[in-house]
Q: What sequence folds into this?
């Protein structure tokens, strides 16, 4: 099995250029993006705090992502904090035509692994100004509310996002970790281009939100897209299908997501150029109907075992 994965890595290196074309594209507001993007949260120190261990590799990964065809990069003011936005500017500014950078605001960071929601309008505005400056842009392509702060009236947070669009500081607005009711409430005040929720082959608790996004042509950006839990156990369905396809388990996770919905926009994160290439090459994997169905049903099987066990 390891031989199959190593073989897949080898062919990835030889064939990756332009493979993102095969991920298809999505119309995110007025922007057309490949459906497979890149997330930058891994380009910090431990606990999403401070600079990355290897600054040059982080810069190489960002440059490499764009060279491989990535045109949607996800970041946040709180990654580092400030670290990943600075790295993006250092690696990629002046930005190539068509590259879209999605950032977020709505958390303060008291320390490593600590995240405190803060959706006060003055804070969101201040963070938007800082992101504009750090990224070196006049308008943020996609500005996402990282969390809806339960301590601040939701309409004040959504209204602030609308204000930032009206002032031309933000092109599109997205939300993160929301329920359908919050999404509907937000859409009464501001157009919502994307939702970023925890979702992957093993955790589909956001299926209802995904269905809503499909109905309203809202981009659905799954975070932790590579997590697969017990589904990747030795001899399990992920490993077996990866062997059949000649791919790695990570690639099968991404191929399953891309097939799961046409509004799905995975942003796998990595600090390694090798993993970046491997992840981009997942756009080229075509699962058969049977393989897709087996992977889709695999979670039910896990639940049955959990009940039996
Ligand atoms: N909205 C939110 O609240 C929220 C929360 C979390 C994340 N996000 C966003 O979502 C993006 C993706 O999530 P994530 O980065 O946390 O999780 P992920 O993409 O599911 O997985 C990242 C992990 O997998 C490893 N990895 C990456 N490619 C691999 C490969 N081909 N083979 C083996 N291991 C591989 C990485 O390590 P290496 O560095 O060693 O490759 C890292 O440990 C983040 O970068 C961030 O932009 C958003």
A:
């Amino acid at each position: 099995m390891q031989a199959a994965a190593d073989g897949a890595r080898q062919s990835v290196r030889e064939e990756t250029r332009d493979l993102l074309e095969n991920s298809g594209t999505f119309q995110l507001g007025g922007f057309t993006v490949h459906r497979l993007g890149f997330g930058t949260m891994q380009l910090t120190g431990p606990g999403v705090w401070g600079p990355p261990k290897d600054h040059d590799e982080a810069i190489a990964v960002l440059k490499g992502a764009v060279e491989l065809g990535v045109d949607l990069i996800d970041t946040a003011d709180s990654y580092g904090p400030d670290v990943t936005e600075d790295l993006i500017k250092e690696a990629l500014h002046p930005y190539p035509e068509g590259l879209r950078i999605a950032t977020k605001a709505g958390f303060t960071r008291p320390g490593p692994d600590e995240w405190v929601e803060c959706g006060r309008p003055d804070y969101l505005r201040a963070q938007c100004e800082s992101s504009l400056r750090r990224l070196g842009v006049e308008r943020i392509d996609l500005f996402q509310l990282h969390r809806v702060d339960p301590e601040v009236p939701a309409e004040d947070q959504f209204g602030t996002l609308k204000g930032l669009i009206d002032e031309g500081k933000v092109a599109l607005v997205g939300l993160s970790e929301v329920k359908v009711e919050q999404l509907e409430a937000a859409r009464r005040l501001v157009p919502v281009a994307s939702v970023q929720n925890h979702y992957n082959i093993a955790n589909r608790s956001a299926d209802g939100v995904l269905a809503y996004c499909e109905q309203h042509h809202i981009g659905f950006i799954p975070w932790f897209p590579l997590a697969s839990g017990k589904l990747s156990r030795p001899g399990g369905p992920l490993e077996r299908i990866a062997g059949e396809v000649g791919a790695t388990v990570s690639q099968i996770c991404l191929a399953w997501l891309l097939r799961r919905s046409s509004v799905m926009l995975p942003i796998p994160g990595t600090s390694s150029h090798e993993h970046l290439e491997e992840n981009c090459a997942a756009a080229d994997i075509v699962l058969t109907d049977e393989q897709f169905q087996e992977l889709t049903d695999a979670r039910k099987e896990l639940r049955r075992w959990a009940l039996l066990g």
Notes: The chain is about 45% helix and 15% strand.
